[in-house]
Amino acid sequence: MQNTSLLRRLGAMLYDILLVLALVIMTTYLFIALNGGEAIETDENLEFQLVLALVIFVFYVGFWVRPGRTLGMQAWRLQLEARDGGEVGLGDASIRFFAALLSVAPAGLGFLWSLWDKERLTWHDRISKTRIVHYPKTAPPSESSTRQTT
Fold first, then answer.
1. Which of 23, 32, 82, 106 has the fewest CB neighbours in a 10 Å radius?
2. What Rg, from alpha-carbon coordinates, does the chain have?
3. Burial tier of 12 (Cβ tally within 10 Å: 0-12, 13-18, 19+)
4. E strands within the chain?
5. Predicted model pTM
6. pLDDT digits over 113-140, tens only?
7. Is 149 exposed, middle or buried (0-12, 13-18, 19+ CB in 10 A)?
């Protein structure tokens, strides 16, 4: 197990962005259907914007809390864990989600920070007291081997 590189993180993020895009499209279709087949005025529809934000939040936080990795992270053999190696709770996962928005906002500087950080941690890793670790092919992550019981 080792802290993960920026390239591996970006690979997992690409997978997850495609999945989130599919969820956003499905949610949009639902709103169009509920709107009688008419287009949604996204600038004027706060309810639509909030539902999309909630869908994205639930996707990431839900996977981070259980099983500790999104589908993209699973493909890249990455695992989110607390810095002490334990499970990430709802509170820390929520903090991580909003801190990740801060990491992206200034041209991705919070992610690029991992290139200079001794532990390869991003801003949102540090803020949420979490880390993403990479498990080599020879030792795939499993619930029993990667999580400490409390």
1. 106
2. 17
3. buried
4. 2-3, 78-82, 130-134
5. 0.86
6. 999 999 999 999 999 999 999 988 875 5
7. exposed
